[in-house]
Write a sequence for this structure.
């Protein structure tokens, strides 16, 4: 069975933060208010499953209805989290355990949702096949960094799309 492709699709500030120091992502609201989805719908249709950390999971719960319904979501956690949903799986064994579960399920394209720690673990192991980074025209000056102690990696630019909001979505692949 072939290894799945792992895709990091995430929004970041111009200075590389994915959240404020306290974890809030309220700075995204003004960019999500319009009708532009920055390619999200087309991207979402291409993925089979998702991986996220516990903090990201809890933040998504705050959005109301589970926004990833119908696609298996793996949540990396060390805490005893539970859900009534059968499309949410909590994984306590770290990166190795979630990779084993993803491979056993036969998924072909998996979205690394976040947060920074989970994304950095995948980057450190050079497991991300495609990076889709939406850079929004805002500088926070401090916060939770997307890139947390990851080794140098050279990537190949696949596409760059700019939007009237000033956002730029960059797509890179591992060479």
């Amino acid at each position: 069975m072939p290894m799945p492709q792992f895709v990091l699709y995430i929004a970041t500030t111009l200075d590389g933060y994915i959240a404020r120091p306290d974890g809030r992502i309220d700075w995204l609201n003004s960019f999500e208010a319009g009708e532009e989805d920055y390619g999200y719908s087309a991207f979402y249709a291409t993925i089979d499953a998702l991986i996220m950390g516990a903090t990201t999971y809890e933040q998504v719960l705050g959005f109301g209805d589970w926004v990833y319904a119908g696609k298996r979501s793996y949540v990396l956690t060390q805490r005893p989290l539970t859900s009534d949903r059968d499309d949410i799986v909590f994984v306590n064994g770290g990166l190795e355990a979630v990779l084993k579960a993803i491979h056993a399920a036969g998924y072909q394209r998996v979205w690394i949702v976040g947060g920074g720690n989970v994304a950095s673990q995948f980057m450190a192991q050079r497991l991300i096949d495609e990076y889709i980074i939406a850079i929004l025209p805002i500088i926070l000056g401090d916060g939770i960094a997307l890139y947390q102690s990851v080794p140098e990696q050279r990537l190949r630019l696949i596409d760059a799309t700019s939007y009237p909001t000033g956002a730029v979505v960059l797509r890179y692949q591992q060479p």
Notes: The chain has a mean pLDDT of 94. DSSP finds five helices and ten strands in the chain. The chain has one domain: 5-173.
